[in-house]
């Protein structure tokens, strides 16, 4: 089995924001499942990582939380993207693409110089 | 903004913890349930489904803790817990806490108080604009009283013309004026200044304006600027004073402004005026005569110029002056000039004393710190078991270190708070000391910088204390825990550190005690000095009647000014004689005399003097003598012994033959081994023709004993007394010998003075004992301060020795028990412990005496009548320290001897 990757805090925040943007308000379990599925089970995501990250985003005002009934009729805390969160997501996505391009350019296979 | 918001939310999170924890538990439970349900849907049995769900999601408790840390600010909570814990620990050992806090408070208090003085007097930047570019120029020559002879106006002109690196050179002439108010007269110390003075000094007015170059010279109206302190003291800070006229020496002078608070040098002053207020200062003789030196000089460095540059240029100009005007600079007198930063000049009298006190305070701090370190090392050993347990429960070394740091911080900060309280009282005492040495005493404050110093001191100390307590390495900890060790003490390294600290304490105590001893002996020696007169029950008043500044102004006719002075002098003399005879008639008065100045006070004037048929030796300093006048009764009233010849009589009148009485030093200098009676002397030198004193020959009719007029520590100066009636009253002092209780006469005497001369200021009323004491008092305070530091140090060191030995005894209880059961008797055990302490004591004593030897050399300048390496002091101090040290060793040694071998061995 391949090594599972640890999620870095900043990266996780971006994943959470993106998940909420795509799927709308969602509880912690749903977010975790979605992230793991998207990562094709290459990531481990335990409570100790996920919930502090959610709390941090909430403290920063990027997401809001409220208790609601879930689809199968049980009480769960649902997280939703705020306006600030939407802006933050756009900003971080842009930055992430820039960095990815940059790193990609650096790590590109060496070209023969004529 | 984001961070701020998050921070605020998290701070709130510290307090809403409980409810949020419930919330989180429910949320996590929901998560777990959903994961379990999912697993069941995939076909797992319920038990396995739940197990798998827990496995993938991680432990619930860890998650709860991680969220908890994110919610609040964990470090604040940890520190709060540490503080609570530390407070509890300290409360449980009140004796330890009290000793440590008091010790630290004394050390910190002494340092804070003295640092505030050092800062105010020596370190703080001057209030003057760019005060570090201000320079003070000083001219000196050889001979007594010639250390600061100031400058003449032509000399200042030469400096102005020839020293480009000095951007501005201002003149400042100390002077006295009498201010007539509605409620009596005040004698003011004033400075007569040139118009550029304030520009050069970089001072601004708080009210009104300052003088400018247009206020210079003759023929302008006299104006006055009040110093801030005098404005507050005399006019209660009344701003309406600006623009008003006041009467000074009979002239109307306009108050034009109030100056910002600022220090003056060489002496504090009450007001500053333009030169015109004193006809003498704008007269031709003052302005043109190179030898007529009565002006202090301050200068400001030109921009871009350095002090070294200024020194070189001043030296070059001065060389030229001495070449071109040989008669103004007698080569034998070694005329010289010094360029000193103004701030240094202000601090020069205080510097040595203050650094001495700062050093002593630092030593007390070192001893207290060493003691606290020792105490906490010992306590640390007792707490090792606790630390091991805490480590076993998962506290890392870093956490233990933080706990220690918090504890030490609490201790030092408590000490600092108490220390600042001590300092508040200490500073009041020290300001009065500093005022004797420095014009900047008014600037001493316990301000933010000083408190910052105190805080830095306490935090630094706490860090030091936390890091000398050696905590074990992480891995050795584990092995101890595994081995079930209850204590990890007895490490040789730690004991060596404790012993080193004791040795240092003893050594530093010896240095402090030696300093205290030297200063105390200095003070005793000084008070034993024979002042030269019988001081008991003698009252002296300084009542200057002659006002030197009034009269015809304008520099054109100096003789008119003299004539005016002589007229006023005749009136003054009559008033003096009436005061004297009325006071003589008061009940309880035994004798009353008149003189130019009070006995034991410095004479106001000194002149070059020559003896008949004895040409002055070439290549030596020109002989000067102090000028004093005396009525026939002066010597008897003052208790100055007449060694030869006669006192003045009432027949020594203005018109009769000129006679003088000289003191013993004068005879030794001019007529060594001869009978001076009948010999003739005369005043001489370039200044004579500027003064109302004649250069005629005067016959010596008597010789008095020497008196210590320049302070008890200054050698007597050659002095010539002239009859009060044969000399203009340059000053006026009444000396009154009482049958008993001289201070009781003050009221009656003051009444007489005010009746005879209602407008006369009484500058001072003192008994001769008080005058004498003024010269001892600063040294007494020095000695008292350093002695109290010394005593403090010895007490703390004794506690240190006793504590370390007691600790050593308790750590060696088993060993001692074994020794005793093997046949060692009590005496032997006692000797063993005494030897242990004695060795530390001996090493400390040797180091201390060596340190005291060095310290004695440094404070040489503060000593009088005692050698810096005075063997009596050193031996006495070493013996005292040894005695106290032995007593401190004895107590634990006795305890060791009382150990019961049976009990001690069972305790293993």
Separate helix tally of chain A: 4
Helix proportion range of chain A:
55-70%
The greatest interface between two protein chains, and residues involved on each side, is:
A-B, 23 and 31 residues
Class by alpha and beta content of chain B = alpha+beta
Overall radius of gyration of chain B: 38 Å
- How far do the termini of chain A sit from each other? 43 Å
Describe this structure in words.
The complex is a heterodimer of chains A (114) and B (908). With 114 residues, chain A is of the alpha+beta class. Chain A has one domain (9-107): Winged helix-like DNA-binding domain superfamily/Winged helix DNA-binding domain (Arc Repressor Mutant, subunit A), CATH 1.10.10. Chain A is built from four helices and three strands, in the order αβααββα. Chain A has a three-stranded antiparallel β-sheet with strand order 1-3-2. In chain A, helix 1 packs across helix 3 (47-60) and helix 1 (9-23) crosses helix 4. The longest helix of chain A is centred in the C-terminal third of the chain and has 25 residues, at 83-107. The model of chain A has no long low-confidence stretch (mean pLDDT 82). Chain B is of the alpha+beta class. Chain B has five domains: 2-71, no CATH class; 73-128 and 349-489, no CATH class; 142-334, no CATH class; 509-530 and 769-908, no CATH class; 544-549 and 560-762, no CATH class. Chain B contains 28 helices and 21 strands. Chain B starts with a helix and ends with a helix. In chain B, 43% of the residues are buried. The A-B interface holds A 27-29, 32-33, 44, 46-49, 51-52, 55-56, 59-61, 70, 72, 74-77 and B 2, 5-6, 9-10, 13, 23-24, 26-28, 30-31, 33-35, 37-38, 56-60, 62-63, 65-67, 69-71.
Outline of the structure:
By secondary structure, chain A is α+β, with helices and mostly antiparallel strands.
Throw out a few tags for this protein.
heterodimer; A: 114 residues; alpha+beta; Arc Repressor Mutant, subunit A; 3-stranded antiparallel beta sheet; 14% strand; B: 908 residues; 6-stranded mixed beta barrel; 28 helices; 15% strand
């Amino acid at each position: 089995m391949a090594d599972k990757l640890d999620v870095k805090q900043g990266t996780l925040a971006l994943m959470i924001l993106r998940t909420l943007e795509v799927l709308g308000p969602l509880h912690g379990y749903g977010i975790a499942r979605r992230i793991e599925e998207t990562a094709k089970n290459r990531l481990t995501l335990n409570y100790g990582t996920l919930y502090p990250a959610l709390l941090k985003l909430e403290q920063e005002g990027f997401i809001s939380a409220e208790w609601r009934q879930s689809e199968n009729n049980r009480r769960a805390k649902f997280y939703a993207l705020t306006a600030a969160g939407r802006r933050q997501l756009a900003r971080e996505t842009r930055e992430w693409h820039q960095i990815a391009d940059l790193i990609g350019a650096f790590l590109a296979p060496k070209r023969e110089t004529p | 903004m984001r961070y701020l918001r998050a921070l605020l939310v998290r701070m709130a999170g510290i307090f809403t913890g409980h409810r949020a924890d419930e919330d989180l538990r429910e949320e996590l439970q929901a998560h777990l349930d959903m994961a379990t349900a999912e697993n069941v849907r995939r076909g797992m049995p319920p038990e396995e489904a739940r197990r798998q769900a827990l496995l993938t999601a991680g432990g619930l408790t860890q998650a709860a803790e991680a969220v908890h840390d994110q919610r609040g600010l964990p470090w604040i909570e940890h520190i709060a817990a540490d503080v609570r814990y530390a407070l509890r620990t300290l409360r449980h050992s009140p004796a330890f806490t009290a000793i440590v806090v008091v010790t630290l408070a004394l050390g910190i208090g002494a340092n804070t108080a003295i640092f505030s003085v050092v800062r105010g007097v020596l370190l703080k930047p001057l209030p003057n604009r760019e005060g570090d570019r201000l320079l003070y120029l000083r001219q000196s020559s050889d001979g007594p009283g010639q250390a600061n002879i100031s400058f003449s106006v032509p000399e200042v002109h030469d400096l102005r013309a020839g020293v480009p690196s000095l951007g501005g050179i201002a003149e400042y002439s100390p002077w006295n004026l009498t201010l007539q108010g509605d409620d009596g007269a005040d004698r003011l110390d004033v400075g007569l200044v040139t118009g550029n003075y304030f520009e050069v000094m970089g001072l601004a007015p708080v009210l009104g304006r300052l003088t400018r170059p247009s206020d210079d010279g003759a023929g302008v109206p006299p104006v006055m600027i009040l110093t801030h302190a005098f404005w507050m003291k005399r006019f209660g800070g009344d701003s309406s004073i600006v623009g008003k006229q006041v009467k000074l020496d009979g002239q109307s002078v306009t108050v034009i402004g109030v100056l910002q608070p600022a220090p003056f040098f060489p002496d504090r002053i009450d007001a500053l005026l333009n030169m015109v207020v004193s006809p003498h200062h704008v007269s031709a003789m003052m302005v043109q005569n190179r030898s007529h030196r009565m002006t202090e000089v301050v200068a400001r460095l030109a921009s871009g110029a350095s002090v070294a540059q200024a020194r070189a240029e001043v030296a070059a100009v001065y060389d030229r002056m001495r070449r071109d005007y040989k008669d103004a600079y007698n080569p034998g007198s070694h005329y010289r000039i010094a360029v000193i930063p103004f701030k240094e000049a202000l601090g020069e009298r205080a510097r040595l004393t203050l650094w001495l006190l700062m050093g002593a305070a630092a030593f007390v701090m070192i001893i207290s710190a060493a003691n606290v370190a020792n105490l906490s090392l010992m306590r640390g050993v007792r707490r090792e078991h606790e630390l091991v347990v805490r480590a076993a429960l998962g506290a890392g070394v870093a956490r233990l270190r933080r706990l220690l740091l918090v504890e030490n911080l609490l201790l030092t900060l408590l000490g600092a708070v108490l220390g600042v309280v001590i300092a508040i009282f200490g500073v009041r005492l020290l300001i009065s000391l500093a005022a004797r040495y420095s014009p900047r005493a008014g600037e001493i404050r316990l301000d933010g910088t000083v408190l910052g110093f105190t805080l830095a001191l306490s935090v630094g100390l706490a860090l030091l204390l936390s890091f000398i307590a050696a905590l074990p390495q992480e891995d050795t900890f584990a092995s101890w825990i595994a081995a079930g060790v209850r204590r990890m003490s007895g490490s040789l390294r730690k004991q060596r550190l404790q012993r080193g600290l004791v040795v240092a304490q003893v050594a530093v105590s010896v240095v402090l005690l030696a300093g205290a001893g030297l200063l105390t002996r200095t003070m005793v020696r000084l008070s034993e000095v024979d002042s030269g007169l019988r001081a008991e029950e003698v009252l002296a008043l300084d009542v200057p009647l002659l006002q030197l500044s009034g009269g015809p102004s304008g520099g054109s006719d100096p003789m008119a000014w003299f004539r005016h002075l002589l007229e006023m002098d005749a009136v003054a003399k009559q008033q003096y004689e009436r005061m004297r005879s009325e006071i003589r008639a008061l009940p309880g008065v035994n004798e009353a005399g008149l003189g130019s100045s009070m006995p034991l006070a410095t004479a106001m004037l000194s002149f070059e003097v020559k003896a008949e048929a004895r040409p002055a030796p070439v290549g030596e300093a020109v002989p000067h003598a102090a000028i004093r006048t005396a009525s026939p009764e002066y010597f008897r009233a003052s208790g100055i012994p007449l060694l030869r010849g006669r006192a003045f009589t009432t027949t020594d009148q203005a018109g009769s033959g000129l006679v003088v009485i000289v003191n013993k030093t004068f005879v030794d200098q001019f007529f060594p081994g001869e009978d001076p009676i009948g010999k003739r002397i005369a005043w001489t030198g370039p200044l004579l023709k500027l003064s109302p004193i004649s250069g005629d020959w005067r016959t010596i009719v008597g010789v008095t004993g020497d008196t210590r007029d320049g302070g008890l520590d200054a050698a007597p100066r050659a002095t010539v007394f002239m009859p009060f009636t044969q000399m203009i009253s340059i000053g006026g002092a009444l000396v009154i010998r009482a049958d008993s209780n001289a201070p009781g006469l003050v009221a009656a005497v003051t009444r007489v003075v005010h009746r005879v001369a209602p407008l006369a200021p009484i500058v001072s009323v003192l008994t001769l004992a008080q005058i004498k004491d003024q010269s001892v008092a600063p040294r007494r305070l020095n000695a008292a301060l350093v002695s109290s530091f010394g005593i403090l140090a010895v007490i703390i060191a004794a506690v240190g020795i006793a504590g370390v030995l007691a600790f050593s005894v308790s750590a060696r209880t088993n060993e001692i028990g074994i020794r005793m059961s093997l046949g060692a008797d009590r005496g032997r055990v006692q000797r063993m412990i005494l030897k242990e302490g004695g060795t530390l004591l001996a090493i400390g004593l040797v180091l201390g005496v060596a340190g005291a030897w060095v310290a004695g050399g440094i404070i040489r300048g503060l000593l009088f009548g005692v050698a810096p390496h005075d063997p009596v002091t050193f031996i006495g101090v070493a013996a005292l320290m040894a005695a106290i040290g032995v007593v401190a060793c004895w107590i634990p040694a006795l305890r060791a001897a009382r150990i019961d071998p049976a009990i001690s061995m069972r305790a293993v």
